[in-house]
Amino acid sequence: SLKGKTAIITGSNSGIGLGVARELARAGASVVLNSFTDNAEDHKLAEDLGKEFGVEARYIQADMSKGDECRALIETAGACDILVNNAGIQHVSPIDEFPVEKWDAIIAINMSSAYHCTAAALPMMRQAGWGRVVNIASAHGLTASPYKSAYVAAKHGVVGMTKVVALETAKEPITANAICPGYVKTPLVEAQIPDTAKKYDMTEDEVIEKVILERQPSKEFATTEQIGGTAVFLCSDAAAQITGTTISVDGGWTAL
Ligand code: NAD
């Protein structure tokens, strides 16, 4: 059980982050939800999750594109035994047309936020004598696709940083690993279907069948519950010697 542990999940009012928060809460952890918005629904989401699983749950607003807000998220939470670096965005465009502001935002949110949050959380983990860093990378942290230069660069960067954090904490009861999902049906994936359809000159149904599930041999989307379950495993005693590595949850994508 993760009772007594506090988990901070960045970008967790939707999709994979919310799924991971739910599974960590189910396992008994106190959870801190986060996004850049500060709506009544965000706080209600945490309140409902806390009630559902009988754990402490809070929502803390912080923009993961800003280093000082990343660090403030961890400081405001006041404890961080489990850090899940999940916040992420996508933009699809050929590299020579890739908007500079999209490049900068993807590098900041998908990669640099993991650096800032980890830097702020590690002293707390050391103080507590236990810690888990779980980075939500991607199959695109291990392989590439055209038109996703910033995303692929950021995710490869996260996989590299995961290895460094693992080495720097190797002699401590702290681990750092990356989960590499293939396609999980979340708002992020749904949003890129129209753009991809334009790039490949296909209908949206053809994109799902021929582009998305083309890469995923199982021909099924992974679920947010499965990503959450993998995170819970990485927090278990069975995973205490698993550090500095990646776990693919991709229906065979990276085996191809
Ligand atoms: P999503 O759009 O449903 O969720 C993204 C989350 O990040 C949301 O909660 C959003 O509010 C938050 N977010 C965005 N910008 C933020 C910012 N500036 N500050 C704080 N929070 C911010 O997408 P998702 O599919 O759940 O993606 C979550 C993570 O999983 C991302 O890192 C993504 O790259 C990764 N991933 C997703 C898939 C997939 O198929 N869905 C596959 C591999 C990896």
Describe the structure.
Strand 4 (82-85), helix 4 (100-128) and strand 5 (131-136) form a beta-alpha-beta unit. With 256 residues, the protein is α/β, with parallel strands linked by helices. Helix 1 packs across helix 8, helix 4 (100-128) packs parallel to helix 5 (149-168) and helix 6 (187-200) crosses helix 7 (204-212). Helices cover 47% and strands 14% of the residues. The chain is globular and about 55 Å long. It has one domain (6-185, 221-255): Rossmann fold (3-Layer(aba) Sandwich). It contains eight helices and seven strands, in the order βαβαβαβαβαβαααβ. The chain binds nicotinamide-adenine-dinucleotide. Nicotinamide-adenine-dinucleotide is lined by residues 11-17, 34-36, 63-65, 86-89, 109-110, 136, 138, 181, 183-184, 186-189.
In short:
This protein has eight helices and seven strands, in the order βαβαβαβαβαβαααβ. It is of the alpha/beta class.
Write the layout of secondary structure elements.
Elements: E1 6-9, H1 15-26, E2 30-35, H2 40-53, E3 57-61, H3 67-77, E4 82-85, H4 100-128, E5 131-136, H5 149-168, E6 174-181, H6 187-200, H7 204-212, H8 224-234, E7 246-249
Parallel strand pairs: 1-2, 1-4, 2-3, 4-5, 5-6, 6-7
Bound molecules: nicotinamide-adenine-dinucleotide.
Nicotinamide-adenine-dinucleotide is lined by residues 11-17, 34-36, 63-65, 86-89, 109-110, 136, 138, 181, 183-184, 186-189.
